[in-house]
Fold this protein.
Amino acid sequence: MTFVVNAVYLAVAILFILGLKAMSSPVTARKGIMQAGLGMIMATAITFLYPNHEGSGLLFFGQGKTINLILTVIAIAIGGGVAWWLGKVVKMTDMPQMVAVYNGMGGGAAALIAAVEFARHENLSPVVSTLAVLGALIGSVAFAGSIVAFLKLQGIMKKTWRLPAQNMVNTVLALVAIVLGAAIVLLAGNPALPAMLVGFFVLSLFLGVILTTPIGGADMPVVISLLNAFTGLAVGFEGYVLGNPALVIAGIVVGASGTLLTQLMAKAMNRPISNVIFTPITGEAQAGGGEIAGSMKELSGMDAAAMMRYAEKVVIIPGYGMAVAGAQHKVWELTKILEEAGVTVKFAIHPVAGRMPGHMNVLLAEAGVPYDMIFDLEEINDEFPTTDVALVIGANDVVNPVARTDKGSPIYGMPILNADKAQSCIVIKRGKGAGYSGIENALFYAENTSMLYGSAQQAVAEIITAVKTLV
Amino acid sequence: MQDLLFIYIFVLAAFTGYEVISRVPVILHTPLMSGSNFVHGVVLVGAMYALGQAEGPFQLTLGFLAVLLGAANAAGGYVVTERMLAMFTAKAKPAVTTGKEA
């Protein structure tokens, strides 16, 4: 039986790797998740036939194991069922925080596996207990950090606070956790162990909270991706503790690919990962930045409609504001009207538009915008000088020219969409306040920029009505 | 030897993970993150194993929670990824010829 189970685990590992590979190309992506899904079903099913330690029977069907079997089935039904249902009903705009939550659950599960193993064995071998401790630490950080990320993205936790000497506190806490973890490994069998373990878990969870709380704004996707890689690592380590190759392979593959993905994202924002964690973007950090000259000009929906109707080329820059207002369908409607009137319309997507890289593409795809109208930053940035109207909808930091010009600004160096270089620029914005990161936007004060205030949904509807009278 | 074999697996899996997703287009960053989030949902298997061996109320409770969270990771991760990717393939077909998502 051991052989059969392990053979199935190998097949599962192969399915996971092929699935991930397929998911990195748009053509095969759908097939990829289905392959991986098949792998997960196989892995779960075969685990019910796991042999017991003596090799004389099955783990779940031995004497006195009925309670374990029943609890397992109930836990899978509840956990899987609720998560499945939530995943089905959640709005497309809320996807990033759902990924964060599910990732946190995986990290929590890995930490709990370590907890069970420590409770079961008084004396784990040093190698096993080292990896169990590491997995527990990383898993707990991923769990607590992901919950904080969820609360922030969901808008439940609005404030981004930093402790005085935050980096010092982080470092000290991390060191204490590591020392405590080392003590747990070295003092195996010591009567003080349970208390130390409790302290270790509490500290690890707290570390996850305190690492994530100061991070906000455009850095959020990078953090979720990093925590995702963390969970992968934790799963891999606990896989070693349990002697389960499927966990090791899947966990480490995710750990490595997640780390690479995090780097790619951070690079797209021109912010090293260390900066994301140690010098988060906050509004106050702008003290050194220069004052922004000029004033904001307002225009009506009719003016905006006329400008675009008689333009040759319009580039639409959607941001999270558009997604929140659920305006993507209206925007697509406006696009179709403009195209019929002979205007060339393109969509420009910043790598971190939305709350995660690629999030905006998903939202536009949902509304029906075809691929060939959507352009990446590098593809379209040179086109802005020949663009008549750049229409910015609910985007802010990703079009802030301060990132190019003001060395004192916290977002200095982040690549931006050069909407300010278009002939004219229309910004749809809900109010006059600063963006998600709390930084003033020089684009809004520029000579060729006009502001159209209102929710994206309502403002675009206004433009559509006006444009229809001009066609 | 057993330990060394696992280190082999660690190292090779790390290279595989790195290799598998290099050169991925930006548009797929979110679905891919979500997809890899689903893959580490295999932690469910480890949680089941832990719960299967658990004895006494304390261990059973910890194991139960582990399976609960692991199952949520796997099921939720799948649904969310599937929903994102379903949209991609449906609309991608007509634009496949452009081949310009880099």
User: Anything to note?
Assistant: Confidence is low (pLDDT under 50) at residues 283-290 of chain A.
